[in-house]
Description:
- Eight copies of one chain form a homooctamer.
- By secondary structure, chain A is an alpha/beta fold.
- Chain A has two domains: 2-155, 3-Layer(aba) Sandwich (Rossmann fold), CATH 3.40.50.1970; 158-193.
- Chain A contains seven helices and six strands.
- A six-stranded parallel sheet of chain A has the order 2-3-1-4-5-6, with helices on both faces.
- The radius of gyration of chain A is 19 Å and the shape is globular.
- Chain A starts with a helix and ends with a helix.
- The mean pLDDT of chain A is 94.
- Chains in contact: A-B, A-C, A-G, A-H, B-C, B-D, B-H, C-D, C-E, D-E, D-F, E-F, E-G, F-G, F-H, G-H.
Amino acid sequence: LRAEAxxxxxxETTPEMGIIMGSDSDLDVMSGAHDALxxxxxxxxxxxxxxxxxxxxxxxxxxxxxxxxxxMYAYGETAAERGLDVIIAGxxxxxxxxxxxxxxxxxxxxxxxxxxxxKSVDSVIxxxxxxxxxxxxxxxxxxxxxxxxxILARRHEELEERLVEYHEKLVSGVAEVSRDIHDMGVESFxxxx
Amino acid sequence: LRAEAxxxxxxETTPEMGIIMGSDSDLDVMSGAHDALxxxxxxxxxxxxxxxxxxxxxxxxxxxxxxxxxxMYAYGETAAERGLDVIIAGxxxxxxxxxxxxxxxxxxxxxxxxxxxxKSVDSVIxxxxxxxxxxxxxxxxxxxxxxxxxILARRHEELEERLVEYHEKLVSGVAEVSRDIHDMGVESFxxxx
Amino acid sequence: LRAEAxxxxxxETTPEMGIIMGSDSDLDVMSGAHDALxxxxxxxxxxxxxxxxxxxxxxxxxxxxxxxxxxMYAYGETAAERGLDVIIAGxxxxxxxxxxxxxxxxxxxxxxxxxxxxKSVDSVIxxxxxxxxxxxxxxxxxxxxxxxxxILARRHEELEERLVEYHEKLVSGVAEVSRDIHDMGVESFxxxx
Amino acid sequence: LRAEAxxxxxxETTPEMGIIMGSDSDLDVMSGAHDALxxxxxxxxxxxxxxxxxxxxxxxxxxxxxxxxxxMYAYGETAAERGLDVIIAGxxxxxxxxxxxxxxxxxxxxxxxxxxxxKSVDSVIxxxxxxxxxxxxxxxxxxxxxxxxxILARRHEELEERLVEYHEKLVSGVAEVSRDIHDMGVESFxxxx
Amino acid sequence: LRAEAxxxxxxETTPEMGIIMGSDSDLDVMSGAHDALxxxxxxxxxxxxxxxxxxxxxxxxxxxxxxxxxxMYAYGETAAERGLDVIIAGxxxxxxxxxxxxxxxxxxxxxxxxxxxxKSVDSVIxxxxxxxxxxxxxxxxxxxxxxxxxILARRHEELEERLVEYHEKLVSGVAEVSRDIHDMGVESFxxxx
Amino acid sequence: LRAEAxxxxxxETTPEMGIIMGSDSDLDVMSGAHDALxxxxxxxxxxxxxxxxxxxxxxxxxxxxxxxxxxMYAYGETAAERGLDVIIAGxxxxxxxxxxxxxxxxxxxxxxxxxxxxKSVDSVIxxxxxxxxxxxxxxxxxxxxxxxxxILARRHEELEERLVEYHEKLVSGVAEVSRDIHDMGVESFxxxx
Amino acid sequence: LRAEAxxxxxxETTPEMGIIMGSDSDLDVMSGAHDALxxxxxxxxxxxxxxxxxxxxxxxxxxxxxxxxxxMYAYGETAAERGLDVIIAGxxxxxxxxxxxxxxxxxxxxxxxxxxxxKSVDSVIxxxxxxxxxxxxxxxxxxxxxxxxxILARRHEELEERLVEYHEKLVSGVAEVSRDIHDMGVESFxxxx
Amino acid sequence: LRAEAxxxxxxETTPEMGIIMGSDSDLDVMSGAHDALxxxxxxxxxxxxxxxxxxxxxxxxxxxxxxxxxxMYAYGETAAERGLDVIIAGxxxxxxxxxxxxxxxxxxxxxxxxxxxxKSVDSVIxxxxxxxxxxxxxxxxxxxxxxxxxILARRHEELEERLVEYHEKLVSGVAEVSRDIHDMGVESFxxxx
Lengths: 193, 193, 193, 193, 193, 193, 193, 193
């Protein structure tokens, strides 16, 4: 990572977004972020030196605050130099320290914390004054990716449009269900499922 | 508000950040955001048509989700057109709906939610998939302002520098206290306070 | 909905009760309300312009506070004009805003809130002073329908009678089980099941 | 109470609303209901046989579920016959049984439960299927009175108007504070208080 | 029940212990009490007028506080006259009022409350000063029966002996397992299971 | 204590009830038990060899489960032989082990546990199957004394009468307050206080 | 146990570590400690008089605080004399008294408490000032064994080395997974599992 | 710190115990550890190069996980080389990461975590498998110092004796209070205070 940080790469070839999680057992929850980014047209970059064609990309790592603190430090310290603009960090357990330690180390890069379990919320969100992190609800990695994209969209209007498009699809979906349930009546609606 | 939205104002003359809260009784908690923004060189804009000299400004409103739902709707709908880039929304009570309803209405503008009381955390953070909000811990309006500035700093490098400066002051403070407590010993340190 | 509101329909042909829920995934919980209303002789009205024969009717919609805030506003604002007398609103998640936002918008129409999950109770019930909602316990949509009928029964004595009839059946059921368990003894009673 | 129930009084001379609480130590919390009813033009009736001039009235009793169960039974059983249309029942402690026992006994009269303490919420709201109660949030006796009035307003249009008037005053208040805080700026606003 | 209460039966022919529960769905949890009483040599009395041979007996009823408040009242009021010495009352839900309402009505007869679910504990135990109940932990109907027997044993030395015998069996069981796990080692012990 | 246990004293000269608490800092909470016993005519016995005149007496000790486990064992083991019929044991903290360890050691003597703080409830009540304790709510030492007296009253009819007398006074008190608040109206009632 | 304590055995032949649990139903959770000790080269000693060859050994017992308080007392009192250096004690339920009672009795021997269930945490950790215990998180018996070994390692450098070796394996594992997930991309990584 | 670590100091001249806390606002809670160490004859070492005469010493630092992550890293990494044998680490807030991050970095040195507030318990105790920490209850820094001394006492018999002496004083204190409260009676005892 430190080598990549020194490489002084062209920002268009580095991932905009880093997704890290405390363990590969968090992947089922965290893959919601990948789903959202696919939906929004991001590509996953698996080789730092070889960017995919897509304009916006993300990378994925497993980093454990408690089992590999050195790796966490290295990732956080080099994040800005490696060209990242925002980090999504997820962790489980009661002492879900990856998101907030990363927010402390990578500061002033914004970090969106994802509590992987309900019991991780307090630990992710509970930062002292002066040490900022923003968090989403337990398990809501999909929303974390939307929020991270909202942050990037401050600079990239193209992403704003993709967010609006996604939302319009969502609204149509709810409206259609609403009409169906009303016009068919509850019983027929349930039978139709 | 709707008139201001139609005014098509020059983005340099409109506030970048909007601070809204559910009641003026939330002001004691929410003024932490004002403290942080003062610290970072933002100015408060009290007349939409007459911008202060400072490059970065914010505005403040009281908006109640449950007592003035129309006002909340108007604020959220016009936020982007009125030139805002990020909203900090705080509310208290168990049903602290201002932050998340505003996030839904002002989408895709990013909203940083501040639960004004401990019991407001669940209501602020608990959005369904597809409707993003990011939140800070209960009462941490100071950190909300830092986070909102981190978001703006994606586009304005000047703000990144201010964030770093603020942090360096913070670190020196802790380091100094640490040296004092160690070198004086606990008893003398306490006496010196 | 706004067209229906303007239609100035005869109150006897419009639904007395509106049942709304945040998502069709809430239907399993909310269908308890439909069961209770069937039990009490209500009919479901699936076409606003074509009332069923039954004197008392209800309608069903899916409305999401966070994904379709405009739809929620439209429903709440037109409810009284469309002839509704009481709304049952259910939502899940920690930020179950549909019931209380609807109560704020449809005021002074009474709204009975149904927290679809245990974690939704605080958000549904926690309204500030001046913004009323009444709520039932998590998942108790059946009771919400009884309560909504108790409200209607203030004006329609016929509904009072139906409520009493329902209750008498309930009491007989408990009394019968009690006699069985006592007279058969616990072991035989269990075997008989 | 039973004598009054037998008296077959003219409904216009009996209280529409009964307010009961588990102990006179609950009065500080429950007096919010009295404030709201005063605001809405209700009068307190202190002599069942001598109604005040106001069209809408309420009465107040202390009834303890656990220390005076007989009194609670008598009150609930005679409520309808004594001319009441809706009961507001408040109780504190973890086992706040007055509201829900009264709801069970006075059925099908609607009862609005007020948990006097935060820890009373579960006990007030947690009724089994078939035994309805509606509840407001802990301590929100003011809102309970608004809700009870919403119920009465199904039959008495005059009350609907009073509810709307009250709400308009409330909205103006918030709007005024919002304008002040925005136009004066946070610092001046605080100084002006 | 009232007839039985008037019957003035010989205390040796009436059940010493009454077991009541809020619903037959509570039976799976409450049958622990029956198991304990079987273990201690009690017999179930299924006909009040026809006592079994065993010296100590119990009876079982389903009584719902919220669905059959009159039945609960009748049971509590007649308990002492019907010859009961102690009542075990179990109920589920958040508003588990059967145990404490029965304790209030049957006073000064001692009542051992059994919260059928974890969420019932607060409601069962939370009585105001002056209205006594004693409770066991959620679901611990077996222990409730032991405790009720401890109460009876104040007067009947024979029961004290049975309690001691039961306990000795229990201790031997633990001691045997302890020796096995130590002497076999954990792995062999687990294989032997 | 062991000497007293061997003394084989006349049961009429030994205390019926033992009150123990984990620390003298629990005394403010536990003195509710002394108040109740005074009310019911019990006397405190301060010298085991010199009984007061009153027929029913109690004694008081401070015993810490965690700081003086030997003392706790000695007290529990000798309780029955020293003539006690029931023990009231109170403890604070999250690990309030005095009541349940005493219940385990003094078995089959009944023990009424008093959680001195809210956070002590779980620890006091949470016994495994086969090890009975009964508990009252946090801080309710007054009720614990009533419950312990209900247990003794199984054998001593005189105590049953005293319990009934106490209760009648309590009921009159509530009834009087209820009449006052109704007849005076809320405002005058508050002024009269 | 008392005989073994008197035996004055050579410390090299006695177990360094004692593992006790409240019930054999706790074994599934507690066997994590056995796994960790196996990993670190400890052997289980199943006969106090016949030590295995391994330099470091442990023993296992089932001891119930509430069902066999005498056994718990004997174990704690003799622990130091029997040559133990540290005890790992696990218990479940809300009143998980085995760890803290053992810590009180075996003092000044260090005891590492393992709450077997989430609800046991408070009871295990909540000791009063002056009565020390240290605890791990619910179910983390594996970590308890690591911690107990850290304690022993203060005296036995060989154990320090084994702890470091274990950790290096752990770190390599995480690093490998991290590289795989990054280089393969999330989708391929999941397919490869 | 790194210079001190390289200094290769004589273990008898370096502090055995390091006390660190997240902020000087934690000092009121953490000074319990200092009180306990004073009681046990430890001295505070305020100059690493100039040891006090006492055989056993400790040092104190303020280290913030979130505001000064580099300092935390440096402290943890150098702890063993600087001659420390055990670390007591306290932190407040919901995300009390100092104790567990230090435990991860300083591994295999044992760390005793002190949650400075009740809400810090989960975050301190909740480590993943493979990353050990032991914790005491919220605010119990006094006990943390006793536990840390128990750990040191595995190697230094002298400390074991001091622990026993401290405990004997504690027991005498409780016994004296117990005798007073019993022999004086509750009322006189309270008056004597």
